[in-house]
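Reproducibility note. Readers wishing to regenerate the assembly model reported in the main text can use the exact inputs given here. Chain order matters: entities are listed in the order in which they were concatenated for prediction.
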Amino acid sequence: MAESVDYASLDVGDEAPETALHVTVEAVRKFLKVYMGNEGQGSRFTDPDAAAAEGFDRKPVIPGPLGFVHLARTIVDWMPDARIEKLDVVYRSPTYLNTDYVRRAVITDRADREGEIRFEMDVYIETLDGNRTQRGAAVVYVPRG
Amino acid sequence: MADESKVSPDLEPQFDRSKLGKVLGEADITVTEEAILQFAEAVGETNPRFSQPGPDLEALPGMLAIINRPQARVQVRFPFATVGMPAGTTMEMFESVRPGDVLHVSVKLADVYVKTGRSGTMGFVVYDKEFVRKRDGKLVARVRQSSLTRP
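Running the prediction on these inputs yields the following structure tokens for the assembly.
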């Protein structure tokens, strides 16, 4: 998490520090316990055979909503005081467990208002070779000064 | 609402169209400190704003997007479908969510449509959820969840 960010210095084109994302089956079980009330035994989220039966590679997939939460975290990791007004995420292709990804954010618009700055940004989960498995657009407010 | 006029009849989704745009279910949920902390821990969040007990604690943005109550759903059958999965989530947040908040949640079926593109034919079902804080009647968040099915 960023310790201190000078929000006023950020502008269009600035990118969040790249953060690694590597989701384990234990992490997915924890999430599913909160999300669904069970640990997803025998599902495409924890079981390679179940994932293969549904047409995915023989690797469990990360639940889309968990990717959504990680994209929200990408924003507040970068801007710890941010108020996310809107986050719109498309689950483009499977994001797999036990695989290395990076989380990215880039500012696409800035508007200064009284007491706060409004940023628009794009956020992504990407494979290490740059394929975006989840992408989103966000509207975020941070305090000015 | 998607224009379904060009969809071939053999791809038409089958469902109770009277449910479109209607509230399918409602529930009151009480947000506890424990739930906020459990969620932050489950996703590895360490920002004290979302993970430290105390008067300043608030729910990590995204928490409302994963609440699956009430579990109101309409049976939608796409003739070509074999596999289903989430397609996207849109969350609009208007207020912070804090321990002790009681939220009234309502779910609507927003849209059902078929789209044919480079990836083939896919069927989409879209639900809208609204979260209203009971204490003051303020709209706290709106969440739109789309799922897709494909052959």
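We highlight two features of this model. Strands of chain A lie at 19-21, 83-91, 101-113, 116-127, 132-143. The interface with chain B takes residues 1, 27, 30-31, 33-36, 54-55, 63-66, 68-73, 75-77, 80-81, 83-91 of chain A (CB under 8 Å).
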